[in-house]
Write a structure and sequence with these properties.
This protein is mostly helical and about 90 residues long. The protein has one domain: Orthogonal Bundle (Muramoyl-pentapeptide Carboxypeptidase, domain 1). Helices cover about 40% and strands about 0% of the residues. Helix 1 runs parallel beside helix 3. About 5% of the residues have low confidence.
């Protein structure tokens, strides 16, 4: 997921960063904006990930690890809680 993407998963990721940063308001709602991209880049640099601003599997795993939250993938149903892998390698 990257700049310009939209949907519930963007809102979920922005909410995870708000929780991590102890902020009441997420940087984005349903559209992945520049503020969220910059926050993702900072997080990636701080955790030794490729700093590309793309939320892929490694970033999701590290974000959830930082929050002591397991990653679960919903393999049946709507997929609303199923993170999408981005461009990380």
């Amino acid at each position: 997921m990257s700049l310009g993407d939209s949907g519930a998963v963007v809102e979920w990721v922005a909410g995870r960063f708000a929780t991590l940063d102890q902020q009441d308001t997420p940087l984005a709602q349903q559209r992945f904006n520049r503020a969220l991209q910059q926050r993702v880049e900072l997080f990636q640099r701080a955790h030794g990930l490729r700093s590309d601003g793309v939320v892929g599997l490694r970033t999701l795993l590290k974000l959830n690890e930082s929050l002591d939250a397991p990653v679960t993938l919903n393999t049946s149903g709507s997929g609303a809680d199923k993170p999408a892998a981005g461009g990380e390698r």
